[in-house]
Amino acid sequence: MKQLKLEIERVQSSFQTALMQSNSLEALEMTRVTFLGRKGEIAQLMPLLKDLSQDEKREFGPLLNVLKESSERAYFDKQTLLQNLEYEKAEESDKNFDVTAYKPGSVKGSLHLYTQATQRFEDIFISLGYTIADGPEVETEFYNFEALNIPENHPARDMQDTFFLKLPYMVLRTHTSPVQIRTMLTQKPPLAIASLGRVFRYEATDASHDFMFRQLEGLVVDKNISISQLLGTIRLFLGQFFEKDDLQVRARPGYFPFVEPGLEIDMSCPFCTKGCSTCSHTRWVEMGGAGLVHPRVLEHGGIDPKEYSGFAFGFGVTRLIMFKYRIHDIRLLHSADSEFLKQF
Ligand code: DAH
Description:
Layout lengths: L1 H20 L3 H12 L4 H5 L8 H42 L17 H15 L3 E2 L5 E3 H4 L25 E3 L5 H9 L4 E10 L11 E11 L4 H16 L6 E6 L4 E10 L15 E10 L1 H6 L8 E8 H8 L5 H4 L4 H4 L3
Parallel strand pairs: 1-4
Antiparallel strand pairs: 2-3, 4-5, 5-9, 6-7, 7-8, 8-9
Helix pairs in contact: 1-2, 1-4, 2-4
The site of 3,4-dihydroxyphenylalanine has 11 residues, from β8 and β9.
């Protein structure tokens, strides 16, 4: 009997030693199997009980139970401890994870040309004291047409050009000019806003047309606004965008229902001085429309045309980008072609 007692003590102390030396979850698992497993050292002590007398069973039964339970508890405590340590270690190495580390062969992302150009124009206009305005792409016919003095029978209203929605009186805006009205109805003059965004036209796609493109709209309303201020502003922001101090603009008479007089704006060809294929050998390229805000448009915006006047301009951002970066096909600009986009 003495022997069983010694056995119990031996198993207990070698379990404690093994437990102490188990410094990883793998080592701990080995210890568990060796001592607490189905065929482990503790399990092997159990059959010895059955050869004992009743009295001896009463003495050693509880001793064996205590050994088993206390060993299991010690094992679970150690397991929790090791799991916590491992968790802390993982957390620590996550903390040292360097997202900026160089990884060979990785592809670097870049901002899309539209994002770059939008940010550039917004910076230019903010530096001129403008605020940046925004308007919805799904627009009411009133803001897109009527309020801009575009009459019912104007060609722009044709089904050929406009995406009419199934919602009553709603269209995809065909230009950014409705932002003019929205601004006048919410801000009092003097005001100066620029707005960049997407516009939609119902037309077939080719190298220079798409059903969606981007425009830049400007509106200034104050007392005694003049065409020279308008032309000076246009020359300035085009010059800054193309990074050309000597960029020139010229105005030709043009018709837009929301301005009077209306102007077509050309700029000097950014690629030549004597004429090239881009400017069809004229040295000028057409870039946008502009003019002095029509009195009826001011009225629609709740502004008294006897007291205030204004200028407005609208340019094709898509066209400006295609010119600046010499992109010959709008479909490339609107594609997700990473080989193309990587260049910028
Ligand atoms: N909204 C016109 C278009 O899409 C462009 C335009 C012309 C805007 C003259 C203006 C403007 O603000 O004054 O073709």
